[in-house]
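During the practical work, I selected for study one protein's amino acid sequence and its backbone structure tokens, as given directly below:
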Amino acid sequence: MRVSPELFDVEPLNWRSRLDASVEVMKELSRFSDPQEMSAVFIRRMAQLFPFDRQLTVSRRGLSFPRYRVMQFNHRREFAAAKADPQPRPVHEGGLLADLVYSEQPQLIAELNLRPGDPAEPYLAGQRSVVALPYFEQGTTQNVVVLSHEEPDAFPREQMADLVLFSNLFGRTTQSLVLSRAVREAYEAVDSELRTLADIQKSLLPLGTPRLPGLDVAVHYQTAKRVGGDYYDFFPLSEDRLGVLVADASGHGAPAAVLMAIAHSITHAKPEPFEGPRELLTRLNSHLSGRYTQQSGSFMTAFAAVLDLHHGTLTYASAGHHPPRLRRAVDATLVSLNRSQRLPLGVKADESYPEQTLPLNPGDCLVIFTDGVIETGNPSGEMFGTDRIDAALSQYPVTAERLIERILTDLSRFSAGLPVADDRTLLVLRRE
């Protein structure tokens, strides 16, 4: 469809023609997401509104007067999208195009007379009239679109104001598309790196759950982003002793994942097994505080325990972690393991982590979790809390896996589809 030349005619009787033409142009432009294709369409449409013979895009970006570059040059019948060229355009100096791109104002030349040797000659030789439309960025001109015609006085003066406005709106649109594409490409690059980092992080976690006679173990691990700061690990200490660690690094995403990886490295740096939770947390805290967390202000909560199935005991220590819940099989009482709380790891280098020992009888069930579970919110602003974990424990499912399924089902119903805001680790150990 040929756009009506009355688009910029401000006479009241032509408002319908102007509106129809504007709608038609906007419809066509909206079909493109590539800035260069949009530019080709825009130039073609402008040629219908203002017949011209040549079009140039002149840029002063990164240069100073009187230097400039010609970024694009089209003849009347060459409206193909400009191809990206990795080579920088040559820099010209002085002459008419320098005056136009540095003037900061629209320019209309009804009768063009180029001086001999003007750098604009290869582009404007034989042209008689010129209009220059500046594109403004942050209040200054960085680019100018120059239209020319073989006839003198070819561009109506009364339509200049609307033409400047229309071309600048288009310029802002294409710039937004360029920025949007750059952001999308940057996001895709970062996301690709994070996917690789997520694979590496998963490799740091146990491949499965330990198999000790008389112990039922299940675990659920979920990061809020590609990577996260939750960390859990198992340490077989003997045929009937198992070490367990659940930790939660401060923050989210990649920074927390890095701290999680450091903790894993420290934990596995010593070849011989640790004696108990006190030794494990003290070692972690000393290394994190001494080298990794003091400048960044990062820290990590952690709960470490040793389950001794031969003697029927549970020995634990806590570094600022949410107290796990222990359900007794004999009388169905619930115990909060909160009697050995100390500062999180990475806060104070000489912090001590005393141990507590409790009986672990057949049928007793221990639930360890990170704050991403109990601090999950619902649309009303409530938190999931430990009461709902206690409610699931009171049902006393047959297996550790069934208990995790029950808690996760309750968690999903409670959050009502809200996105996961924090990493979640849920670990259940049940003495059979």
In short: The domain at 206-431 is CATH 3.60.40.10 (Phosphatase 2c; domain 1). Residues 255 and 287 are 17 Å apart (CA to CA). The first strand starts at residue 54 and ends at 59.
